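Technical annex B. To support the medicinal chemistry partners, we prepared a structural model of the target in complex with manganese (II) ion, based solely on the information shown next.
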Amino acid sequence: MTKSLLLLPGDGIGPEVIGEVKRLLAVLALDIAVEEALFGGAAIDATGLPITDETVARALASDAALMGAVGGPKWAGQAYDKRPEAGLLRLRSEMGVYANLRPARCFAALADASSLKREFVEGLDILFVRELVGGVYFGTPRGIEDIGGGERRGVNTQVYTSSEIRRVARTAFELARGRSNRVCSAEKSNVMEAGLLWKEEVTALHKAEYADVELSHMLADNMAMQLVKNPKQFDVIVTDNLFGDILSDEAAMLTGSLGMLPSAAIGEAGKPGLYEPIHGSAPDIAGQGLANPCAAILSFAMALRFSLGDAAAADRVEAAVDKALTGGARTRDIGGTLSTQEMGAAIIAAL
Ligand code: NAD
Ligand code: IPM
Ligand code: MN
């Protein structure tokens, strides 16, 4: 049966990197119905909203949605609920994609592209499982209020329930079984109640159902340090929304560039997934053809694997990226001179 993919190019380098996915789609000629919608700042300019109800409905009716990136200086002055980023949070929440898989894999050809020495990153293969629809991103109360005397107060709330923690931990344990069977859970249980609950719930689920998986716990600040000290100690890392955001950007540099790291956000079985490179709209290089399209292309491969029922095509796309890199194809962020389009062309040529 024909599968459906909704492309959400978004802002800045988003349309540039999704453009390379479109060229790849044309060459692969798979049985996928591809649609496109405005998202983020581009949607604000056209409709006043970062995402419309119609676009949310179309994403929910698709098998997968693949976005580029949203945001940029043009819209940064708006109230939070009117910003491009709010559209992304709404989409994640309405799609219920609570588990964000962010694989930090160092391609062999890029072992010298990281700012760490080769021996620390060669063969690196970490899978982050970031909780994506809860925590401080969504907790209430939130806001900025005047509290008199010329003072203002900014409030955000870190909040997790047991079931929110357990469902994402379950995803991490399940995925670990298909890998090296090790999970490290990161929180700040030393200073935060939500972190303590996180640790307790992960421990209880492990004891009850996943005792065969090796589980360890680490305070998130220590993990930030350990990721640069000895990153290969990690297999699967499960953590909350905010720590997962920060630690996965850090891990991206171990693979050579933020432009290399894809992601898949999944929820209940059978529901559509949301796929996105972990990088943003990169206003500093947008419109110049300098963006690395690998993260977007590898996110498309994850969509093929997890939502579009074509693992063989996913393998082909991932192998083509590997082959292009091995052949020396490089955008500027990974030490080369190719443009976004030239890099996309090198990957297509390697198919
Ligand atoms: P960013 O990820 O956009 O850029 C950080 C740095 O990495 C920049 O120097 C940029 O040039 C570089 N970079 C990012 N992607 C690259 C790529 N594919 N190839 C080469 N270099 C790349 O983060 P930022 O500058 O902090 O944020 C810019 C905007 O993007 C903000 O509005 C932010 O909210 C938004 N953002 C959106 C997403 C998303 O849509 N998923 C993710 C992160 C940030
Ligand atoms: C990401 C981004 C988003 C996040 C922003 C743009 C809402 O940084 O996808 O990593 O913080 O989740
Ligand atoms: Mn981020």
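Notes passed to the chemistry partners:
Residues 13, 17, 69-72, 85, 88, 258-259, 276, 279-285, 291-292, 295, 333 surround nicotinamide-adenine-dinucleotide (ligand 1) (CB under 6 Å).
The radius of gyration is 20 Å.
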